Amino acid sequence: MIPDAFALPPGQIYLLGHSLGPAPKAALDAVTRAAAVEWAQGLAASWNDAGWFAAPGRLGDKVARLLGAPAAAAIVADSVTVNVFKLACAALALAPGRRTILLEAETFPTDGYVIEALARLRGDEGLRVERRPHTELFEDIGSDVALIVTAQVDFRTGAAFDLAACTAAAARAGARVLWDLSHSLGALAIDATAIELAVGCGYKYLNGGPGAPGWAFVAPHLAEALETPLPGWFGHAAPFAFEPAYRPAAGAQRFAAGTPPILSFAALEAALDVALRVAPRDAEAHVRALQAAFLDALGDALPCVTPAACGAHLAFTHPEALALKTALIGAGVVGDFRPPDTIRFGFSPLFLTERDVIDAARIVRETLAQDDWRGAAHAGVVT
Ligand SMILES: Cc1ncc(COP(=O)(O)O)c(C=O)c1O
What we know:
Elements: E1 13-14, H1 25-39, H2 46-49, H3 55-67, E2 74-76, H4 80-92, E3 100-104, H5 109-121, E4 128-132, E5 145-151, H6 163-172, E6 176-180, E7 197-200, E8 215-218, H7 220-223, H8 262-275, H9 280-298, E9 313-317, H10 321-330, E10 333-334, E11 336-338, E12 342-346, H11 354-369
Parallel strand pairs: 1-10, 3-4, 3-5, 5-6, 6-7
Antiparallel strand pairs: 2-8, 7-8, 9-12, 11-12
Helix pairs in contact: 1-8, 3-8, 4-5, 9-11
This protein binds pyridoxal-5'-phosphate.
């Protein structure tokens, strides 16, 4: 693919792009330019001259292109956590007679926390949250279900839902789906015509940097009917008219809230331009080739628990997974640990080669064949 586009540290095989993508060289330059030129020299004039003011919509258009959606269908703003809240509130208002929100039992915690808080906030409307196992989320969707909120790709196992089939199943039952595509965009080809509402992050497969802003997508046929619960001035139709009453901007722009963090936007925009150099279907094909090469080279050294329909990371179990992942980092293979016993390896399409992942599998095998890794002690909260 395009590993030369990234500033990768030597001596590491980085299988952790599903957590924090590496730095595109262009993003490092863009941050320097945004700080040293646009901010330091341009000062407030840069809101116009450097395109700062238009950044949420401009980056949103780039996200929309990656999704295969028309311009103005996406916005870059806030975080996944905040965008889940905004889009879920907006979607619920479209289904006033329905009171149930479905969640996966093991959903990524932030999505669950937000949805349960939303139900509590609107308790007087009788909203209720029902948690179901992954395999039953789209089965027997009752006539009271307004919304299903789920990640496409399970953050632990890597299991992936079929976006089109699940969205259609929900629609047949009169429900909508809010997809969390944090583990999808940048690694998998998305058919935006098959989905209505989605959010995602900028720091995993989009490689937009630590804490990169999130994004939100709303299908064009729905956008004008949606109201944000956080109507900020950046989502107003005319922010610099300073009108006392809120009027929503057109399209997804209404889901922007406050002033965008420009330095983070600079990094993410450059990273999106890098991602746009590769067609999403080619990126996904490379993910599959990397996964197949890794599994083939790994053999039966570690049990893989990820099903065939999956995202770009694979999950492996080991009773001493934390010590093993710590020892592997020492040996130059970087993955991560999720309790109680899972090691995740991510197969980011843009910077990894088949040679990298075959070497990584060999190092995993060699490490497991020795005994001295067992004492490896992890330091820090982030695993
Ligand atoms: C599926 C999913 N949703 C959300 C998040 C994080 O949300 P935020 O960007 O608001 O921290 C993650 C982080 O790993 C995630 O895996």
